[in-house]
Amino acid sequence: MADFSSPLRRLGHLTIEQLWRLGFATRFFFALLVYSGTAFRRFQLTLREVYFGGVLSLVIILVCGLFVGLILGMQGYEILQRFGSSEALGTMVALSLVRELGPVLAALLYASRAGTSITAEIGLMKATEQLKAMDMMAVNPIARVVAPRFWGGVLSMPVLAALFSAMGIFGGWLIGVVFIGVDDGAFWSQMQASVDFHYDILNGVIKSFVFGVAVALIAVFEGYDSHPTAEGVSRAITRTVVNSSLAILALDFVLTSFMLRGN
Amino acid sequence: MSDDILVSVEDLQFHYEGNPVLRGVNMRIPRGKVVAIMGGSGCGKTTLLRCIGGQLRPSGGRVQVDGQVVHQLNHADLYALRRRMGMLFQFGALFTDVSVFDNVAFPLREHTDLPEEIIRDLVLLKLQAVGLRGAQKLMPAELSGGMARRVALARSMALDPMLIMYDEPFTGLDPISLGVIGQLIRRLNDALGATSLMVTHDVHESLMIVDYIYFLSNGQVVAEGTPDEIRASKDPFVHQFVHAEADGPVPFHMKASAFRDDLLGRGGRG
User: Fold this and answer.
1) What tens digit of pLDDT does each residue of A66-121 get?
2) Across the interface, do A138 and B79 touch by the CB < 8 Å criterion?
3) Per-position DSSP letters for B192-260, written without gaps between them
4) What is the interface size between A and B, counted as CB pairs within 8 Å?
5) Testing the interface with A: which of B106, B139, B143, B199 to mutate, by most A Cβ within 10 A?
6) Which helix (H) or strand (E) covers residue B11, if one does?
7) Can you give the pTM of this predicted structure?
8) ipTM of predicted assembly, 2 dp
């Protein structure tokens, strides 16, 4: 008879390990919130992280936003003209971006561009005992190192998502109006008439804020919890990308379910 | 605890994942002295240092620093105590993204409201003391191992601590850097009126600079004394350690089944 106990034991061990880690992540999140005072009292620490995580991600965010807009413009025009409503291109591009693609893709890009570097930086600080040294100098590493990076990510995310959407709309306009010849007035007026500030834009901002919290938390936690070895840091970086991507898409599904009015 | 004892360790025990690392360590570190804790790798020296610094919570016994039981302190009080402690890590643990100057300025900027001009003067004084004022603009990656250790020493004494702890300060240093670090530890301890606690396995350098030595083996204090007493000691462990003998109370061979049985394939594993 086959021995089922070993795989079962492994499964049980893995489950307990993941639950334990989830518990530690929750405690870590609360500690992060409790020690966030420094990140706001000494706001230059957070601003520095906004620069490194947000401003230095601008190039990839803007370029990707432009390409996504160009593609949306082409695909949208091709689909809409089948129904004789190519003037609705502006509406389609704008709604796709502000509701979904802007927050989701900006968060995915932020996770791979800035999230990984945050994990690597904190992980290496741990591996080289810099966090321990800070702690021995009576400086709380969660307050001094982790919280500014977390809040830097949370504050950057909605702005990056907005810029991604704006650049995408510009790309859609460029391909639709300038290259294909959709009416310029119809493109903008239909967009203005259909995009609702609260229902579309504000919900997009809420999504990007939630994604910002998730990605920044995963990035700082993976760095802080990494094994203090080269392999440990590299695994932590991989986990940041994988877990962030899964969290963004899962949260997007949940948030969209709550936000859609269904009419 | 009498006033002239700064650190008192009483029946200290520490278990890691069920395995005993420290088994009832007792020691008293008088104020103003340089004391070494020696022993082979893995004997619990660094664990002991971390218990004294409050980074690890003991499984039993207690550690008192300046009259306060370290593991009974709350977070704020522990940090207040640590502001009066300095620690030099094995490889310096300098902050790699800021310059030498900013590394030494870090504790001053974090814990004082001093104007930048005064911080500058204080940092230059500390760097001058370790002979590296000329390296103030360098980044940690541009320093040699010995220089990094000296910068870390300047940083650890930035707030003029009452207790400085050194975790393997001589590891991986060339003989000149080793001598320089040794002399700096002694000189700065006396100049600052501090107390130094040094974890090391470098016998000859330590015997030249310290006032007292504790030998740790298998999580226990097995010998202690002044450098002269240690040199003259007939204790087999001390003798083996000081004369770097391969075999003795610390055996060369790890415990195993009979060699003959192993060769004949009859020896048990593990």
Assistant:
1) 999 999 999 999 999 998 888 899 999 999 999 999 999 999 999 999 999 999 99
2) yes
3) HT-EEEEEE--HHHHHHH-SEEEEEETTEEEEEE-HHHHHH---HHHHHHHTT-SSSSS-SSPS-S-HH
4) 45
5) B106
6) strand B5-16
7) 0.86
8) 0.84
